[in-house]
């Protein structure tokens, strides 16, 4: 099974959508292995969004992520990285398909509800960036055989 990082962005906290968005991942069958509220610094955001540093909107995107605390989550599942990216939908909420999180809740490219890791390699780096080891929990999942066939996980 894979682990992936999701960040509920400040727009989600401000709009009171935290519970609804977390419920999406839970209902899908992803397993929650870590969750905390934290205020992101410009330093950690510069690292996290390093791939955007030449873009004109770099500072604005970072500032938007520091409007208020965010909620960082670690979700586990088979192919969790791809599953969560698919649930999140296209970056621009206006283009994101209905049924996806961004498609259902966002009208914006920047204020797009969630961050989701884009590959297993990135997920491993990002989980280290936002969680200490003792903040992630591996535990027995009692309903695994209701979520998967026994040759799927
Ligand atoms: P992703 O979140 O779908 O992986 P990335 O290209 O990695 O998209 O961009 C990271 C974040 O930067 C996006 O989620 C969005 O908040 C912001 N962003 C990306 N492109 C733009 C843009 O063209 N204008 C403003 N913000 C952008
Ligand atoms: Mg990205």
Search tags:
Alpha-Beta Plaits, 153 residues, binds magnesium ion, four-stranded antiparallel sheet, 17% strand, transferase, nucleotide-binding, Nucleoside diphosphate kinase, 8 helices, binds inosine-5'-diphosphate, 4 strands, Nucleoside_diP_kinase
User: What is the count of DSSP helices, taking H or I runs of 4+ residues?
Assistant: 8
Structural class assignment: alpha+beta
Count of discrete structural domains: 1
| CATH topology type | Alpha-Beta Plaits
What's the CATH C level? Answer: Alpha Beta
Folded structure, characterized:
With 153 residues, this protein is of the alpha+beta class. The chain has a single domain, classed as Nucleoside diphosphate kinase-like domain (Alpha-Beta Plaits), CATH 3.30.70. It is built from eight helices and four strands. A four-stranded antiparallel β-sheet has the order 2-3-1-4. The site of inosine-5'-diphosphate has 9 residues, from loops.
In short:
With 153 residues, the chain is α+β, with helices and mostly antiparallel strands.
Q: What is this structure's SSE topology?
A:
Layout: E1 2-8, H1 10-14, H2 18-28, E2 31-38, H3 42-48, H4 58-64, E3 70-77, H5 80-88, H6 101-105, E4 114-116, H7 120-130, H8 144-147
């Amino acid at each position: 099974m894979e682990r992936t990082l999701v960040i509920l962005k400040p727009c989600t906290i401000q709009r009171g959508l935290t519970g609804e968005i977390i419920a999406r991942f839970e209902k899908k069958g992803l397993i929650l292995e870590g969750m905390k509220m934290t205020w992101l610094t410009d330093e950690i955001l510069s690292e996290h969004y390093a791939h955007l540093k030449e873009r004109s909107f770099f500072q604005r995107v970072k500032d938007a992520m520091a409007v208020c605390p965010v909620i960082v989550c670690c979700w586990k599942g088979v192919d969790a990285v791809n599953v969560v990216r698919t649930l999140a939908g296209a970056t621009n909420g206006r283009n994101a398909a209905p049924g996806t999180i961004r498609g259902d809740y966002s009208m914006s490219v920047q204020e797009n509800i969630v961050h989701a890791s884009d590959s297993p390699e990135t997920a491993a780096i990002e989980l280290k960036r936002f969680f200490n080891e003792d903040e992630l929990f591996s535990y027995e999942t009692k309903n695994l055989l209701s979520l998967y066939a026994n040759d799927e996980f």
